[in-house]
């Protein structure tokens, strides 16, 4: 999320035509094309954030700048050469790190929240309490996970919340 990414397309000899066919999760399809005999490029319905990494005759890679959830989807590079046609397909998935928030609720119980992550984070307590998780799925495809520590009749002090996510792992402690 927010980084640039490059999708490689294998360079072959005697290229006639190169086409990137892009089917994002949000918005319409777009294509980038390069025709070798006229040395011309063409683009149809592509945002400015998607373009050739350099000259397509030297490197047919696609560069996506400032990747966001809207760019998730299928990306196919098609090469037409005198030796045949070649395809390379990517399914782009965007990871969004959750925002960690730890607080004490009105009853004095610790609450750990991993907000707006993609995919959903795994949230637990270091002392091993099995509290029911609450999940809220957002329209953007991100998920907020909330875990409230329920330690009946136990004096909970300096408890630690653990958050596990493909973008990283975090721990934070609180004393309610």
UniProtKB/TrEMBL annotation:
GO terms for cellular component: external side of plasma membrane. Residues 1-93 form the Ig-like domain. It is found in: Membrane. This is MOR1A protein. GO terms for biological process: regulation of neuroinflammatory response. It comes from Scytalopus superciliaris. SUPFAM superfamilies: Immunoglobulin. It is a single-pass membrane protein. Keywords: Disulfide bond, Glycoprotein, Membrane, Transmembrane, Transmembrane helix. Belongs to the CD200R family. GO terms for molecular function: signaling receptor activity.
């Amino acid at each position: 999320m927010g980084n640039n990414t490059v999708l490689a397309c294998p360079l072959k000899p005697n290229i006639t035509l190169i086409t990137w066919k892009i089917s994002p999760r949000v918005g319409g399809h777009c294509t980038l094309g390069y025709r070798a005999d006229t040395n011309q490029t063409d683009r149809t319905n592509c945002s400015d954030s998607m373009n050739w990494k350099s000259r397509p005759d030297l490197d047919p890679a696609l560069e996506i700048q400032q990747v966001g959830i809207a760019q998730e989807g299928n990306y196919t590079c098609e090469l037409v050469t005198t030796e045949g046609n070649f395809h390379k397909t990517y399914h782009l998935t965007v990871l969004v790190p959750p925002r960690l928030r730890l607080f004490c609720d009105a009853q004095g119980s610790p609450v750990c929240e991993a907000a707006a992550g993609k995919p959903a984070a795994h949230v637990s307590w270091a002392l091993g309490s099995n509290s029911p998780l609450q999940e809220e799925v957002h329209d953007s495809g991100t998920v907020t996970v909330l875990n409230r520590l329920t330690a009946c009749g136990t004096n909970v002090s300096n408890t630690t919340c653990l958050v596990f996510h493909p973008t990283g792992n975090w721990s934070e402690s609180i004393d309610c």
